[in-house]
Design a protein that fits this description.
CATH superfamily of the largest domain: Glycoside hydrolase/deacetylase
Order of helices and strands: HEHEEHEHHHHHHHHEHEHEH
Oligomer: single chain
Number of helices: 14
Shape: globular
Number of strands: 7
CATH class of the largest domain: Alpha Beta
Strand order of the largest sheet: 3-4-5
Distance between the termini: 23 Å
Number of domains: 2
CATH topology of the largest domain: TIM Barrel
Helix content: 40-55%
């Protein structure tokens, strides 16, 4: 499961903390992981994996599928040529809203705010704005433990803040505060979004190169926080955004933040999504739930491969 892949974040002179918020793999790290994966495992494309999971074809016991989340422009400009050179295929999970209007997804707006301001300044500013509106931003003991588990790769204070932002604050409140801080400390969301996300033409290019385009929701919000009506609307809008570019087809799906919903299965299938991936970091087997398939994050690849060879 990949997100950012780039050598250098070109945010301009106002970006003083490169690597603090917009984190990912460098091109060299990405290629090194591909070297390791292809030396030990057999690469798959989505068609072969999907057919195999249905029991209609053989799957190599030790194999891998590459997935890329969030519809980032660097997936077309950096990742696509590397995959083409190596004759590898992947699945690119694209949020529908990035194709419909030039606006930053809240998660990426937060990454950029941390990039511009630094972690401590961002946390202080965010909590200050919340205090102005008397918004409760305290986590329970159970929520704190979940925050540290979910964002285990972050320092504890940032892990708690990210959990608060994505999993607890009312979505409208978070969006309003994020927009206010973004305008003050980063700039125009429209301008940033135009250089941040894939265009419709780039999505077609990726598809035409033999890769699979999957859904990644419409608004990129945790599905566990949405009611059934909003959940159905979000899935439907995601399906329509992809159909508008690529036509109707059965597609895979990836849950934002790995957050699912009891009604997700029926709603996804009604909109043409056959299987869905979560973020559980373990190996996929034939016994894996088809609507919440696990994926190993890039930061766990080496450990997972070592575990598989024991």
């Amino acid at each position: 499961m990949y997100h950012y892949v780039h050598d250098q974040f070109s945010g301009g002179d106002r970006i003083a903390h490169v690597g603090k918020g917009v984190r990912g793999l460098s091109v060299a790290q990405f290629e090194a992981q591909l070297d390791t994966l292809t030396s030990q495992l057999t690469p798959l494309d989505w068609a072969k994996l999907s057919t195999g999971l249905r029991g209609k074809g053989e799957l190599p016991r030790r194999s891998f599928l590459l997935t890329f989340d969030d519809g980032l422009r660097e997936h077309a400009e950096i990742v696509l040529p590397i995959l083409k050179q190596r004759d590898l295929n992947g699945v690119f999970f694209v949020p529908g809203s990035v194709l419909a209007k030039p606006k930053m997804l809240c998660a990426h707006a937060i990454h950029l705010l941390i990039e511009c301001m630094g972690e401590e300044a961002f946390a202080e500013a965010f909590r200050g704005v919340l205090a102005e509106t008397n918004t409760n931003c305290a986590l329970t003991e159970a929520e704190t433990a979940e925050a540290h588990k979910t964002y285990h790769y972050e320092a504890p204070p940032l892990a708690r803040l990210k959990f608060l932002l994505h999993m607890k604050l009312p979505l409208a409140t978070r969006a309003a505060v994020t927009s206010r801080l973004f305008a003050k400390h980063v700039g125009s969301q429209e301008e940033w979004a135009r250089r941040w996300y894939l265009t419709s033409e780039q999505v077609r290019e990726i598809h035409d190169c033999g890769h699979t385009i999957g859904g990644h929701s419409y608004a990129h919000e945790p599905y566990g926080r949405l009611g059934v009506e909003n959940l159905g609307r979000d899935i439907g809008r995601c399906a329509y955004a992809l159909q508008d570019i690529l036509g109707q087809a059965e597609r895979p799906f990836a849950f934002p933040f790995g957050s699912t919903h009891p009604r997700a299965v029926e709603l996804l299938r009604a909109c043409g999504f056959s299987r869905a991936f979560g973020t559980q970091s373990t190996w996929l087997t034939r016994e894996s739930q088809p609507i919440n398939l696990p994926r190993i994050d890039t930061i766990h690849v080496d450990a997972a491969l070592q575990e598989a060879t024991v």
